[in-house]
Amino acid sequence: MRKNIKNTAVLVCICVVIGLLLSLTNAITAPIIEKNQNASANAALLEVMPDGSGFESVDIKNYTLPSTVTEVYKETANKGFVITLTTSGYASDMVIMCGVTADGKVTGAKCLSSNETLGKEKTYGDSFKDKDAAAVDAVDTIAGATKTTAAYKGAIKDALNAVIILGGGSVDIRSEEEILADNLNTALPQGEKKFQKLFLVEVIDGIDAVYIAENNSGYVCVVGEQFIGVDANGAVITEGAENPEAVTTAIAKIKASTLKDVNFNKYPAIADFVVSAQKTASGNFVIETKGAGYGIKGGNEYHPASNEYIIVKVAISKDGKIIDCMTVSQAETKGLGDACADEKFYGQFDGKTKDNYTEIDAISGATLTTDGYKQAIERAFEAVKVLKGGK
To answer: Fewest Cβ atoms nearer than 10 Å: which of 44, 271, 289, 302?
Structure first.
């Protein structure tokens, strides 16, 4: 019994001694480890802000910053901030670190990690050094990586905006989509924030775009930077709207427009490439055609061709001018050719004729897609010519 007690006492003493030794070791090594960790972290921060003398973490919960911002470090000598951001380009979770001076200039930027295809984003940050917000968009695009480029530039802009906010200033950090949604809802609150852009089949002078509320409560006409609400009966409800008569006339014209299907199968010259054809009572045509882009002509540089055409819907006036254009479907390369489904691309064809429809900005790194889209537009003009009795 005494022997067991003695053994237990010895074990307890050994444990106490070991515990004391571990505590002493931790007391000695913890500051060293922390110092090394801080030095490693500072080394990463110094890559994008080489003139920094030290950094301290900022609690971002105290600020309303762009959603891409995940971490903020303030340079201890008030030279600026280092911002870590997570965004999505061709793929998700592209992490970028950006240094910004207190007066809003990029000191450096680096992609910490990404799942992008081409890998060129790894050195792209060098292009932004010494740039301010006004110069970001002018930075050259990464060849063949439109979405990666856009995401990277967007992250740099977010970092620049974050520094303004951290400095006590204010900036609109909404996305283009959020700004559009807010403007539509302000113009027509009864639309309940749900709108669709109308595909126009009639020539509407002085109106840039028309949106319809999904609950059929009315419309919003865009005239320059002004958003004008119109109720379901066609009455303008936005106070101070410029030229409300033109808006009322436009909505009345849209509501009165009718479409009649055309049996294009009677025209063998166009039957192979026309998907559908319609004609308005006013003599305009709405044609869906297909063009052979990368999905048909492509190879295996990024992925095998999809064997799918680009389907384009085009409204052409009776005097041969494109009223509206949109992409119906496409299966082009993600992050490259699929930019043909973006209104920023297909919107370029509005107002074009058969003589100048090729005068548009091509999709960077997607020549086959661009050419296929132009082919679809050309076929739409050919179809109208045939349907009007030409050859």
So the answer is: 271
Do 251 and 264 belong to one domain?
Answer: no
Q: Give the β-pairing of 195-197 and 69-75.
A: unpaired
Q: Please report, to the nearest 10 degrees, the dihedral formed by the alpha carbons of residues 196, 199, 204, 210 taken in order.
A: 10
Q: Which of 163, 216, 209, 161 is nearest to 194 (CA)?
A: 216
The residue to which tokens 């004391």 are assigned: 20
Candidates 114, 115, 118, 136; CA nearest to 127 is 136
Q: What is the pLDDT of residues 310-363, one digit of tens each?
A: 999 999 999 999 999 999 999 998 878 999 999 999 999 999 999 999 999 999
Number of separate helices (H) and strands (E) present in the chain: 8, 14
Work out the burial of residue 287: count CB atoms within 10 Å of its CB; fewer than 13 is exposed, 13-18 middle, 19 or more buried. buried
Verify that 288 and 380 share a domain, yes or no. Answer: yes
Q: How far apart are the first and last CA of the chain?
A: 115
pTM for this entry: 0.74
Strand partners, 97: 84, 110
Q: What residues contact 62, with CB distance under 8 A and at least 6 apart?
A: none
Strand partners, 287: 277, 314
Residue 292 to residues 50, 57, 316, 377, Cα–Cα distance (Å): 50, 53, 21, 11
Residues 282 and 251 in one domain: no
Taking the C-alpha atoms of residue 61 and residue 353, their distance in angstroms, rounded to an integer, is: 53
Structural domain boundaries enclosing 346: 260-387
